[in-house]
Amino acid sequence: MKKTILVVDDQPPTRRFLRSVLEREGYRVIEAEDEASAYEAVRKEKTPITLAMIDVNLPGLKGRHVANNLRSFGPLPVVFMTGDSAPNLIAEGSLEEGAPLIEKPFTVSGVMEAINRLLNEQSQGVIYDELQPALLKREKSKFKVQSSKWTASST
After folding, report:
1. What is the C-alpha to C-alpha distance for residues 92 and 82, in angstroms, rounded to an integer?
2. 4-152: which CATH architecture?
């Protein structure tokens, strides 16, 4: 059975790009344009969603709130996406420091690196879940802020 990735972004070109990349890599993709359609898609889905890619600045609720609402169905690893400055998003509360993030515009290799690193960290017990802060193990995270870029560290 193929692993399923939920892509939540209000921009159709971003969703189409990610669908193309992810399906080529063997994933099944579910698209949603906002929190309501994402919630409905997860509610209807019969197979577990492996991972979600959620835009930080969705209309209405911010991406981190959408992620938390979707986690009411169960654990859900999330890679956040943005075209904005990560430090500014953290300062304004739109993004939690240490959260996996990929900046737009992204490349095929960048998307796959983010997904593979998050799934690898999940398999090692690193959990990114605001609903269960006691389980956070950010010290093992390979995602760190370096100047205005979020990059994967070599540690």
Report:
1. 14
2. 3-Layer(aba) Sandwich (3.40)
Q: How does pLDDT run across 47-86, given as a tens digit for each residue?
A: 889 999 999 999 888 899 999 999 999 889 999 999 888 8
Q: What are the residue ranges spanned by the domains of the chain?
A: 4-152
Amino acid identity, position 24? R
Q: Rounded to the nearest 10 degrees, how much is the dihedral formed by the CA atoms of 25, 72, 69, 89? A: -70
Encode pLDDT of 110-146 as tens digits. Answer: 999 999 988 888 777 765 554 333 222 333 333 433 3
Which residue pairs from 36-43 have beta carbons closer than 8 angstroms and sit at least 24 positions apart in sequence?
38/6, 38/8, 38/66, 38/70, 39/69, 39/70, 41/6, 42/6, 42/70, 42/73, 43/73
Residue for token digits 């709130």?
65
Tally of CB atoms within 10 A around 134? 6
What the block records as the tokens of 6 is 């939920």
Residue showing tokens 């409905």: 40
Q: Tokens 């802020």: give the residue.
A: 145
Are the beta carbons of 26 and 2 closer than 8 angstroms? yes
